[in-house]
Amino acid sequence: MQWETGPVSPVQASQPQLLPLPWASPADPATFCVRVASMQRASGKVPVPSPPVLWLARLPGPWLPQGKSAPELPHAPLWWAGGGWREFSEASAALPAAYAPRRFQPPWIRGAGLLRPLEAPGEAGPDEGHAQALGSGPSTRVLRVLRMLICEWAGALWARPQVGGAWCQCPHSIAGLSIARLEAFEVCGGNEYIVLLHDTGAKESTRGTPSLVLTFSLTRNEWCPTAGATRAFAGRHGGEAPVRWRPVPGHRPSNPAPPMHAWLIEATPDYLVLLSPVARDGAQRDGKDVHSALHFIGVSGEVISHHMAVSAKQLTIQRYDEHLLLFKDSERDADGDADCLDDDWNPSHQRVAGWLLSVKDVAVPPLPVFLPSAEEGWLAGASSWSLALAWGCLEDFASSWHLRSDMAPRLYLLESGPMLRLWASRVVDEDYGTVLQRHSLDGKELLRHALTFAPLQQTLLEVDGHGLAAVETAPTWMLWSPDLRHAVRLRDREQASFWRCAGASRDGESSALKASATHARLASVGVAETISTAEVFPRSGDWDSCALPWEAAHGAEVVT
């Protein structure tokens, strides 16, 4: 590998180093982080700025495209901590075990955050009226989940309140119904229950197939849809110009709406996070839905859904302490416009790499993340890529001189191909939930500032012996950081697998997801890659103050 060389200005040569470390080059990222933490403890309350830490991990099996095997590694694993790439002390073709992603079981798989039903002896089933006869033989098995009774009878699912109310049959026909693997989530103080029917054929240790999600309301004593259609933009996608007409394939959703099939991504006593495949209009139709929806269900009755124009099988979810990063596979748009299939045909569709969601307020729509353009030096057709978020100080990317030691998190983009290069974004929390307003000859325009990337200096490497033909195979590397708690990926047979680097991650629990509203914020807001502070200004008020007008939201059905 060869370094990219370039002239150094006298100003850069006269500036002191970001962190003059008094020790030799560390052997691995963990050692580097430990030494920085020791310096921070020694300095007391004086903050010690340190560069972000990133490393290259080989793609596990679920990340590889279907039918492709793991390619030969073009070079030894590397890691980066500001100033340049470094090799691990164990120089070999394999990554040290502490920095290799491995599968693990989240705590909620063993029951954390979800309720398991218990036997309710003496309770009469739907075929026995209101009371079980004294001395009668075996009856319908009735289970209880706090204030709800539930049972299986005549091949259907039945539920009713524990006190008062008659048995209510689920209006949906569920193939292979078995309540042995049923779990529930209580919302609205026990007035509603989210019922999850897991795959009965999956083992406890490998459970991860889509679950059937139903909602039963005790106050109305009826089954209700869990979430509606996620696409709610009238005539525009994300505020952009209207796209060409594309009819939605398949049949229209029936009434009542079919139950939702979704993967359980995260579960706590306060909320659930689900990922479901949906059609282009946001309604779930069959197993061939080409888009995805992320659902947040809170204990207070919040149901927040966000639509993403990518298949769930080509989506990676990364969990950080204060963010959720969802990004597409690098080969998703490799074939150009023909690969869009049933997507939106938007001009920016090929440039969108993923979406960033803040856990501080999941009601605010996720912020799009854009790939660099060809004019900026991005090799779109010859490189694979990966995203990661990391805390650290980038003095050259500071927006002002006073923020040169800012340690706020940024997104980092790995460009892997004939050249290896890192790109960095601005601080991710900067203008995240801000709605900008711009006046033009066409009138008022509402915008959000998307996350874009700029190349990092001294990160460009040429991979010897691997030209453009070498990167036409499956991607090789994925970017990882100590701030990454775990990653979620769908395996074969549509099983969700969870991955983490147990020996190289930060301690402590992740921040809980919170919502400022019971529904997703909605506004006809566009997305701009570049903005000028001279022509835009933050709009006063929150998202509700710039929502869609009543006429646009309640007009004829629109498919974008």
Key traits:
single chain; 560 residues; mainly beta; 7-stranded antiparallel sheet; 34 strands; disordered C terminus
Task: State the assembly state of the protein chains.
Answer: single chain
State mean pLDDT (0 to 100 scale).
76
**Helical segment tally?**
3
Name the shape in a single word: globular
User: Which class do the helix and strand fractions yield?
Assistant: mainly beta
Number of strands: 34
User: Share of helix among residues?
Assistant: under 10%
Poorly predicted regions are 1-20, 133-138, 200-206, 232-245, 333-343, 466-473, 550-560
Radius of gyration: 26 Å
Main sheet, how many strands, which sense, barrel? Answer: 8 strands, antiparallel
> Separation of termini?
47 Å
Approximately how much beta-strand content do the residues carry?
25-35%
Short description:
With 560 residues, this protein is mostly beta strands.
Q: In words, what does this structure look like?
A:
With 560 residues, this protein is mostly beta strands. It has helices at residues 10-14, 29-43, 550-553, and strands at residues 2-3, 54-58, 78-80, 85-87, 102-103, 118-119, 142-145, 148-153, 156-161, 168-169, 182-187, 192-197, 211-217, 222-224, 260-268, 271-278, 291-298, 303-308, 315-319, 323-328, 352-358, 367-370, 384-390, 410-416, 419-427, 436-440, 443-449, 454-455, 461-462, 477-480, 486-490, 496-500, 526-528, 536-538. Strands 11, 12, 13, 14, 15, 16, 17 and 18 form an 8-stranded antiparallel beta sheet that branches. Strands 5-32-31-19-20-21-22 form a 7-stranded antiparallel beta sheet, with no helix packed on it. The longest helix has 15 residues, at 29-43. The two termini are 47 Å apart.
